[in-house]
Amino acid sequence: MRQVREGRIYVGCEGGEFSLPYAVKVAGPEAFMYSSDFPHEVNRESVRHEIEEVLESEMTAAEKAMVLHENAERFYGFRARDVS
Fold it and tell me: Which alpha helices (H) appear in the chain, and where do they start and end?
């Protein structure tokens, strides 16, 4: 757990992972990043569906934001643009 708290371990996750809210609760949201593998192996519809599954999960709004984009922004050193 020390490695997670120190930002040395990241876990890629997708929608439909029923244990994600529990893992985020136990380890903290900082270590989890949504990974779509887009544009190969998947299409827009499947990525949208996976994102919706994360948004419908039992995590808080702040945890969802961290998993879906904030952790990746911090890791890669950039800010995502608003595409809504």
Answer: 2-5, 20-27, 44-55, 61-65, 71-76
Q: Facing residues of 13 across strands?
A: 34
Range of weakest confidence among 27-41, 49-63, 67-81: 27-41
Contact 67, 54 (CB under 8 A): yes
Q: What does the alpha-carbon distance between residue 38 and residue 24 come to, in Å, rounded to a whole number?
A: 23
Token readout for 74 is: 């911090």
pTM (predicted TM-score): 0.84
Q: Which amino acid is at 34?
A: Y
Q: Using CA atoms, how far apart are residues 54 and 43, in angstroms rounded to an integer?
A: 17
What the block records as the tokens of 38 is: 């887009």
Helix (H) / strand (E) element for 67: namely none
